[in-house]
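Progress report, Aim 2. The chain analyzed during this reporting quarter is listed below.
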Amino acid sequence: MTARNLRRARVVPAEMRLHLTLLSLLAAALVAAAPTPAAAAPLGFEDPLLLASDDTFQTVASVRSGHVAVAWATGDGTVVVARRRADGGVWGVTRIRTDATFVRDVQVAEGPETVVAWAETLPGGRQRISAATAARFARFGSPRVVATVGSAHAATPRLAALGTRTVLVWRDRPPRGRAELRVATKDAGRAWRTPRSLGRDGVGPAVVRTTGDRALLAWATADRRTRGIQVGSLGAGATRPSNVRTVSRSARGGPVLASGLGRRALVSWQSRAGTLLTRRVGATMSTTRRIATPEPAHAAARVTLDGRGEALAVWRAGQFTVYGAAGTPAGAWLSPAPLSGGPAAMVGTGRPVLAPGAGAFVLWQQSRDAPGPVRYDVRVAWRAPGETAFRPAEVLAPGSDQPRDGRGLAVAHDAGVIVVAWPASDGVRVMVRRG
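Predicted structure tokens for the chain:
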């Protein structure tokens, strides 16, 4: 062997050893970075998934025909929307940049198209309602101004996707003049129509789809001393509600709405005396029904209504207890039962779900009564189809260290799909249950 060949023989093994060492280090790094498999989530839910490492306090969610959308805002004025198709697969996350200094009350509606709307404050103090739209799983267009408002804080926009269009309702409180409720609609693939005034003031507006392109709007009258609850029907093709009726002349806060049985919807509110009340509204209104409360409730009960007329109401009382009560098709409410068990430092308001063929679910966030940083678990209580009592609550997703108050939980359901989203210390997390 020549000296040149000898040198080659010595160099080649050294290079091979270097490559083998690098490959070994890379493999070890990949093994170390691989996520530890989490315990399977209960009741058929998928494991929690981190959508984005954003710091936010509130999430909203929407489901239509199995397609899912989750939205939130960041501190720098960015609106974020995460979407996933009905057949599952990966999530697509879109960041919508705005020129606002602050964004609040983000709303999302999944329908014939995905619409996200919000109230925003701009440099110099201007305030307005803006929205962005995307055809199903296409790219979002640039944000569009729906209306200028006197106060983004008081606007509290609410959004609902109907059959072929979307409706947006908010409160406009100008610096001078009379405040009023306003509504805007848009057909799929078209621009927003000119906002229309309801001709009256109100706070805490709410809107739900009843059937097809019809919707029901509800609000609390503005005067706190004489506050009541009113509703108005938005017919197919209409640009402002009609048939405005008074549901109650005594209310402490805004209404909660749920739709389910054809053109009928369920209205929930809390009287000035603290009583939880409901009423079913359609072409006619049912009598007012009272929900028994073992201890004073914090606010109006959150409600849901299915296609058979069965209902579920959930509310928070004291500091540590979530209560639930079932409603019959006739409109009566059965005796309530406490759902949140075990010691806790704080319990968030529950969200009710009636899933056909799967039973009833109540979801909430509950802190652990332990020293150290506050940790909020996402908990779920479940009642099987045909049963009358909820089973003991389970931890759906263990909490992470987070300076949150447990009120940022979002729950949406449609066509057997339940989506749960919440802000955690490491970002926004989501869980989905199908079927």
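Helices lie at 3-33, 152-155. The first strand starts at residue 49 and ends at 52. These observations will guide the mutagenesis work planned for the next reporting period.
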